[in-house]
Amino acid sequence: MENGIIFVGKKPPMAYVLAVLTYLNSGNDSVVIKARGVTISTAVDVSQIVTRRFSKDIKVSKVEIGTEELEDKEHKKRNVSFISIEMHK
Question: 89 FRET partner, CA 20 to 30 A, in 18, 39, 60, 71?
Fold first, then answer.
């Protein structure tokens, strides 16, 4: 995690929920959950689990979606969808 950004990957959603709660409970007021491609649904699940099951005080304040152009190992460019979910206490 860098600068309050949690990048969602292939771990189970509860691993990211724990990361969000730990970050917010360590004195920080906001955190951003970011995901690309097939992990977008996991990022949405994480934000909903945090707000509905664990803390009614944490709210989603901003959601950004879009497309990024990435270069793969073979130097081919491709478009990948992303989501960025900002949460505040």
Answer: 39
0.85 surpassed by pTM: yes
Per-residue pLDDT tens for 8-30? 999 999 999 999 999 999 989 99
Residue 22 sits in which domain range?
A: 5-88
CATH of the domain at 67: 3.30.110.20
pLDDT in tens, 39-61: 999 999 999 999 999 988 999 99
What's the number of domains the chain is made of? 1
